[in-house]
């Protein structure tokens, strides 16, 4: 059960020891504040007996017969001396312009606060209740009810006279009444009745459950939730009644309305007041507890509960014990619960105290979270409701959260939260950094420092870099890589690193970091030197990025030693910046690297390094023989005599064979293949490439006394040399391996050649016939002759302008046309005519296909 205490300080004699009770982790739903100012003055000399609430003001009645009008802060605005004895009830209409008062001595007054109209009457018995019509301000609604031993309805007639009528009597004193719209609900000793003022009918009677309780000590509490829902609290019982319209078919002599109890349940304590809160209920309870020492009952602090009604039970949402003045002497009838519908304000009235309960707002929620040290939830709540909170600032909550995390030793989380909480406030960032420095946790905040917007003072970044430099080289290197070089004074950090290198000159991490610092400082020469010393992979990127080619002309060997592939690619890609000549000169003392460079240059372009081809022969022979022969084949600038000399010296047979054949000495080349390599297949392949009959003859002569060579020749020369020439020269009795297979292959190759020839012949004949037929069809087609055609000899139109005149013309199959008289006369030996143009151009003669005469 949560505890609540008014914000005003409670005196020791009026309070109980709260330190013994455990604090609840459940957040209260309401907050409490003691109504002070004028109320404090009143209750020091008098005691509160009743109270009613309007949206604009409060009306308080006392035991000494006074009625005070108060503002919402408790300041007195008006005072009325109504009676010398206790005020039993005060009633206000909805407009707040008319006030009804009744007292223990039987006095009843109804008057306007701003008009002169009044009703005064003194009855011969105490009047316990009064209720004015909610719309009393209207002339048609000048009605009110009073209750003592009977319930009276007063109405003003058209003559401005008041007449009364008895609505109910005979069941004891009327002790509670509530008027809503056209319905009046009241409670007497027997139960609760509801009266319809429009139809002048009583529509229900709800009997009370526990008749053992004295109705004067445990009075009934009535509350209208809306115009048709009445909530009844009596003893420990709560009933929720709904007024419904009766169907016309059910009426007969019954009232037009009836009441249905929609919910009924028991509470733990005695009910002193009820009020609605949305779909929930606020219940003021009178509590009696038994003392463990004396085993006697005593009056405990009253409770204000928020409950969720169900059909036959209820669910407790929150429960607060209230420390009000003099609660030890109070009875159930001494407490009252009034509420303001417009603002959800609840007034707990007791003889010596008035406490206001309000729904907690977002500021109160944040207060509670901060009190419970739930800073992250408080920060989230503030961010979500930043437009509604008035007393809190997101930044203040965030700073409190950071301090809390630091106190708990959760430095990394605190540093991470700085990013979100401090945002772009540079001054706060610097303040927090110094705070982390004081507790020796600069490393914790370093990953989260802003690096762009905002930018802190250079001293902040230098301070953190020095911290890492003293204890963590790797962390220092990481920060230098991640932080932009303009955040701090680069020269200061460079000097600090150099001081540390004096103690550990070979530390790779420090050297690499120093190179990066030199790069930020645009001191690329020093950076490059360190990178080369460390053989760092970023050296080539550094050269390209900052165009350091002029700085590496004397460091080519170092670059090649580090990564020859990347170095060569870079040098070749930037020939305009570092010439081939310069590279070759620098590599003169390292021929193996020189070869790598020249080899890749040759692969890219066979002609660029032609001046070094002679040098490359020796380099290939020394370091890369597999690529020597391809080089000799592709190079057109290589001196063959020099190459032949080197290959002879090193006994490179294949290369020598190639050079001999290229120099035209094919017979020597073939001889070397047969004598040095003893490779008949290679010899045959060489002879095929040269396609020289003398070479074939030399090959046959060399092979005739070597059976394996003969087999190779028989298998391969069938398509180049007549095999009979070889077979006739084989000595009788010579044993030749696989001779039968070789002869079969020769025969098969011969048959294949015959078949190929016959197939080709058939295709040729078929194609010739097809083309002849096509030519014949083409020549048989007609040729259009019109006025646009001209004579190819005289260039005049082929057709005369006067169609009546006779004419004669010749048209050839090549589509050239002539006037007949423009053609030469055919010779006596051959009467055939040919196109002069096609004959002159050697296109082949064409005979005349058409001779036209008219």
UniProtKB/TrEMBL annotation:
InterPro entries with a match to the protein in the record: Beta-prop_Vps41, Clathrin_H-chain/VPS_repeat, TPR-like_helical_dom_sf, Vps41, Vps41/Vps8, WD40/YVTN_repeat-like_dom_sf, WD40_repeat_dom_sf, Znf_RING
Pfam entry (one): zf-RING_Vps41
Membrane topology: Peripheral membrane protein
Residue intervals of the RING-type domain: 791-839
Compartments in which it is found: Endosome membrane; Late endosome membrane; Early endosome membrane; Lysosome membrane
Extent of Acidic residues compositional bias: 14-26
Top-level division of the source organism's lineage: Eukaryota
Keywords: Cytoplasmic vesicle, Endosome, Golgi apparatus, Lysosome, Metal-binding, Protein transport, Transport, Zinc, Zinc-finger
Region (Disordered): 1-31
Renumbered ranges of CHCR repeats: 568-712
Coiled coil, from the record: none
Family: Belongs to the VPS41 family.
Function: Plays a role in vesicle-mediated protein trafficking to lysosomal compartments including the endocytic membrane transport pathways.
Name of this protein: Vacuolar protein sorting-associated protein 41 homolog
The species this protein was found in: Pipistrellus nathusii
């Amino acid at each position: 059960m949560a505890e609540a205490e008014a914000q005003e300080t409670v005196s020791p004699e009026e309070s109980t020891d709260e330190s013994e009770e455990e604090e609840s982790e459940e957040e209260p739903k309401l907050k409490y504040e003691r109504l002070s100012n004028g109320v404090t003055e009143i209750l020091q000399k008098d005691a509160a007996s009743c109270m009613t609430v309007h949206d604009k003001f409060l009306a308080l009645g006392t035991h000494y017969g006074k009625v005070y009008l108060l503002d919402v802060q408790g300041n007195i605005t008006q005072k009325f001396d109504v009676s010398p004895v206790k005020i039993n009830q005060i009633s206000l209409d909805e407009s707040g312009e008319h006030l009804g008062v009744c007292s223990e001595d039987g006095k009843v007054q109804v008057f306007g606060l701003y008009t002169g109209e009044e009703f005064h009457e003194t009855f011969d018995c105490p009047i316990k209740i009064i209720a004015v019509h909610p719309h009393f301000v209207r002339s048609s609604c000048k009605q009110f009810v009073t209750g003592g031993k009977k319930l009276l309805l007063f109405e003003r007639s058209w003559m401005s006279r008041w007449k009364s009528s008895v609505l109910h009597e005979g069941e004891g004193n009327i002790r509670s009444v509530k008027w809503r719209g056209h319905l009046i609900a009241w409670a007497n000793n027997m139960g609760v009745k509801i009266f319809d003022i429009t139809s002048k009918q009583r529509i229900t009677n709800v009997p009370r459950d526990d008749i053992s309780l004295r109705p004067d000590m445990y009075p009934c509490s009535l509350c209208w939730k809306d115009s048709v829902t009445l909530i009844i609290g009596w003893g420990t019982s709560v009933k929720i009644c709904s007024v419904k319209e009766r169907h016309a078919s059910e009426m007969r002599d019954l009232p037009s309305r009836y009441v249905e109890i929609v919910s009924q349940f028991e509470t733990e304590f005695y009910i002193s007041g009820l009020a609605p809160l949305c779909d929930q209920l606020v219940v003021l309870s009178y509590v009696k507890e038994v003392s463990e020492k004396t085993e006697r009952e005593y009056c405990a602090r009253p409770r204000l509960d928020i409950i969720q009604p169900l059909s036959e039970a209820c669910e407790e949402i929150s429960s607060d014990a209230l420390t009000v003045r003099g609660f030890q002497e109070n009875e159930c009838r001494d407490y009252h619960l009034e509420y303001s519908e417009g603002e959800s304000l609840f007034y707990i009235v007791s003889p010596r105290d008035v406490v206001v309960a309000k729904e907690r707002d977002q500021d109160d929620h944040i207060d509670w979270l901060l009190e419970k040290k739930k800073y992250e939830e408080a920060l989230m709540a503030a961010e979500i409701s930043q437009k509604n909170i008035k007393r809190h600032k997101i930044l203040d909550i965030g700073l409190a959260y950071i301090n809390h995390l630091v106190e708990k030793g959760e430095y990394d989380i605190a540093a991470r939260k700085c990013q979100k909480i401090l945002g772009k406030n540079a001054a706060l960032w610097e303040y927090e950094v110094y705070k982390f420095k004081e507790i020796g946790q600069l490393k914790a905040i370093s990953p989260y420092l802003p690096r762009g917007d905002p930018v802190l003072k250079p001293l902040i970044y230098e301070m953190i870099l020095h911290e890492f430099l003293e204890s963590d080289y790797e962390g220092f290197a990481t920060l230098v890589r991640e932080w932009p070089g303009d955040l701090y004074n680069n020269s200061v950090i460079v000097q600090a690193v150099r001081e540390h290198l004096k103690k550990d000159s070979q530390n790779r991490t420090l050297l690499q970091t120093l190179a990066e610092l030199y790069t930020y400082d645009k001191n690329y020469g020093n950076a490059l030197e360190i990178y080369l010393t460390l053989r760092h992979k970023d050296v080539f990127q550094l050269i390209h990025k900052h165009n350091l080619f002029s700085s590496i002309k004397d460091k080519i060997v170092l670059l090649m030693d580090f990564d020859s592939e990347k170095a060569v690619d870079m040098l070749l890609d930037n020939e305009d910046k570092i010439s081939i000549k310069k590279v070759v000169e620098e590599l003169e003392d390292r021929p193996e690297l020189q070869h790598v460079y020249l080899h890749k240059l040759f692969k890219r372009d066979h002609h660029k390094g032609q001046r070094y081809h002679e040098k490359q022969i020796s380099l290939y022979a020394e370091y890369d023989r597999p690529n020597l022969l391809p080089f000799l084949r592709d190079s057109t600038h290589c001196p063959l005599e020099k190459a032949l000399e080197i290959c002879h010296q090193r006994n490179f047979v294949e290369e020598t064979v190639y050079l001999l054949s290229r120099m035209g000495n094919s017979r020597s080349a073939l001889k070397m293949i047969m004598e040095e390599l003893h490779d008949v297949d290679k010899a045959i392949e060489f002879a095929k490439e040269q396609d020289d009959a003398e070479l074939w003859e030399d090959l046959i002569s060399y092979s005739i006394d070597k059976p394996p060579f003969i087999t190779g020749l028989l298998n391969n020369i069938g398509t180049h040399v007549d095999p009979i020439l070889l077979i006739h020269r084989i000595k009788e009795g010579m044993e030749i391996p696989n001779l039968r297979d070789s002869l079969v292959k020769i025969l098969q190759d011969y048959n294949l050649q015959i078949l190929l020839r016959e197939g080709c012949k058939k295709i040729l004949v078929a194609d010739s016939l097809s083309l002849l037929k096509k030519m014949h069809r083409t020549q048989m087609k007609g040729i259009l002759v019109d006025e646009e055609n001209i004579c190819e000899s005289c260039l005049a139109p082929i057709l005369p302008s006067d169609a009546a005149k006779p004419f004669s013309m010749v048209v050839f199959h090549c589509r050239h046309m002539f006037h007949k008289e423009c053609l030469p006369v055919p010779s006596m030996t051959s009467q055939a005519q040919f196109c002069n143009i096609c004959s002159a151009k050697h296109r082949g003669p064409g005979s005349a296909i058409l001779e036209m005469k008219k």
